[in-house]
Amino acid sequence: MAKAFIRRYLPTPEQIREMKGLGFLRNRLSDPSLWHLNRRSASWAMFWGLFCAFLPVPFQMVPATAIAIVFRINLPLMILLVWITNPLTLLPFMYSGYWLGSHLLDVPMLTWHQLEHLATRALHMSDAPVDAFEVGLLQQLKPFFLGSVVLGLVLGTIGYIAMRYFWRWHVVTAWRKRLEARLAQKSNDISAQ
Length: 193
Hints:
Layout: H1 2-7, H2 13-17, H3 39-53, H4 61-71, H5 75-82, H6 90-105, H7 112-123, H8 135-192
Keywords: Membrane, Transmembrane, Transmembrane helix
Pfam family, one: DUF2062
InterPro entries: DUF2062
């Protein structure tokens, strides 16, 4: 079944409970619906997991866990999907989000020199006093934020639909195999008589 195929790649409840950064959510992880895997929970986990993966915020596992708890959907699959954006894949996804946002807002893409300057300013914002915050920085990051959210929504929707179809295909295939096995058994019984 689809459950067995998906469960092979998911972390166990114990592994997730031991993850750092969950804090106050750790005691809510005993809800059995967070660990139940069916078509509904897997499909919604695909949507929310991919959406949270592209959120332009640090610690994306925390909102993903909160969403899983509130909507009672499969947590391990969501956590697995959130890690699509990891330190190795982060730059291509950030660039894709910025590219999409700049096209949606119809603003020109930044040059490499401008991106380097923007990154330097963003990294040193914590060192500067609050009144030194530049409004231009927020304006330059607006395409990135918009593009990341839209990219998360689009990929989450595609993931939701793909999981629904994958689950249905897997169930129908299993039904057909069982039907063929029964028909083969019935024809063997008839020929044996």
